[in-house]
Design a protein that fits this description.
Number of strands: 13
Distance between the termini: 41 Å
Order of helices and strands: HHHHHEEEEEEEEEHHEHHEEEHH
Number of domains: 2
Bound molecules: zinc ion
Helix content: 40-55%
Radius of gyration: 25 Å
Length: about 400
């Protein structure tokens, strides 16, 4: 499996290089841009030059090219950064796209794939542990490594007739969500969802493991072990984050019919990760940018999961403009940057209304959602204010028993 993943990585990286460095030459010669199809057509020639590539299933190599194509599509539509080369040990994976070549023997717990148990000369069927039932028509299987474990992700197609959003929608069906650093999601009713996954303890552990790795001799067995320990730690963090996000989104989608969030600001996200010209400081970037960037990645996933989980239940995910949500007063609507007294505290410069800054923003987001839905936002502000007082009291209690705030960088 490592060898197949290695072949796919090589094909991916070569194809990336071709697209990055030779697109002009290609266009001059053929008059067309390099595409998935043009690269797929060149695979046999590549295999002739590097015979070991034939060891990997042909479809997997084609899928690596497809992945690159998708990465470029995402880049050109502003959803992701410029595709980067894949590195060994980072997201090793390969995909079998043809359901006709895949068989899952549920009774014997066997996964049969090209090169794995389809012929006597193959490596033999893969023994699997089935984590959940499989329903519907098989579409594809992706094998990937995370830390010390290999996973098979099975994509099934099922028919679902999701219920439609039943009219009328009342103001009580609508909830606004904002993102935050201490708790990933803050709701307009004052509730906080989730927690910080990578606290000071986890970060110091990661630093320790990375240091231990850097001290081991290159190519030694101890180095390999240290690398696996670091990988295991990283994938544990990833699993925790994934688990948390699923729990948050399921909880919200189950209990609310209409969820209002801010439109995702892709540019702001990437800018915060790289730092800006005005704030090039290392600490600035780490304090504000890094934590934020990590959570922002989760935010995109939260948005994606909310969209489909709400759709399953006949709910609706509504996106509103993000402009000034953190500076607008939820009580009087006054917009002023100075109202943000501190990172956590909102104090309106016009009416003196005070609240947790994130809850205030969530209420503002909900208000915009209500307007978009054609519901009266005015009557609901009063009700929201009632909930606000409760939420403030609750937050005060919460702050005392200490949400794990990330430690400032450099400490
Ligand atoms: Zn105000």
């Amino acid at each position: 499996m490592l060898r197949i993943a290695g072949c796919c990585r090589l094909v991916y990286n070569l194809a990336l290089e071709q697209r990055r460095d030779f697109w002009r030459q290609h266009r001059r010669k053929t008059g067309t841009a390099i595409s998935w199809f043009s690269q797929k057509r060149e695979l046999p020639a590549l295999k002739a030059a590097a015979p070991f590539l034939s060891e990997a299933p042909a479809h997997c190599l084609q899928m690596a090219l497809k992945d690159l194509d998708t990465a470029y599509d995402r880049f050109f539509s502003g959803l992701g950064g410029y595709p980067r080369p894949r590195r060994k040990g980072e997201g090793d994976s390969f995909t079998f796209p043809d359901p006709g070549q895949i068989r899952i023997d549920v009774a014997k717990k066997r996964l049969i794939l090209p090169k794995f148990g389809r012929r006597a000369t193959d490596a033999g069927a893969l023994r699997i542990r089935l984590h959940r039932g499989l329903y519907g028509a098989l579409r594809r299987v992706t094998i990937s490594r995370e830390g010390r474990h290999w996973y098979a992700s099975v994509l099934m197609r099922t028919k679902r007739n999701p219920p439609r959003l039943a009219a009328p929608v009342a103001a009580s069906d609508v909830i606004g969500l904002d993102r935050n650093v201490a708790a990933p999601v803050v709701a307009s009713d004052g509730r906080r969802f989730g927690c910080v996954i990578e606290g000071p303890r986890e970060r110091s552990r990661q630093r320790r493991l990375a240091r231990s790795l850097s001290r081991k001799c290159r190519g030694s067995k101890r180095r390999q072990k240290a690398r696996l320990r670091l990988l295991a730690h990283k994938s544990r963090m990833a699993r925790r984050r994934r688990d948390m996000i699923h729990k948050i989104t399921t909880d919200i989608a189950k209990n609310h019919r209409v969820v209002v969030i801010e439109k995702l600001r892709v540019l702001a996200m990437t800018a915060s990760a790289h730092g800006t010209a005005e704030a090039p400081g290392r600490n600035v970037a780490q304090k504000a940018g890094l934590n934020r960037a990590i959570l922002d990645v989760g935010w995109g996933e939260i948005r994606r999961q909310l969209a489909y989980k709400l759709a399953w239940r006949g709910g609706l995910l509504l996106e509103v403009a993000a402009r000034d949500t953190s500076r607008s007063c939820a009580a009087c609507g006054h917009v002023d940057a100075a109202s943000r007294a501190s990172r956590d505290m909102f104090r309106c410069t016009a009416c003196g209304h005070e609240d947790d800054a994130d809850v205030n923003a969530a209420i503002e987001i909900r208000r915009r959602g209500l307007i978009a839905l054609g519901l009266p936002p005015a009557g609901t502000v009063g009700a929201a204010r009632g909930a606000l007082c409760d939420s403030m009291a609750r937050n005060r209690e919460k702050k005392n028993d200490g949400i794990n705030l990330p430690a400032p960088a450099g400490r």
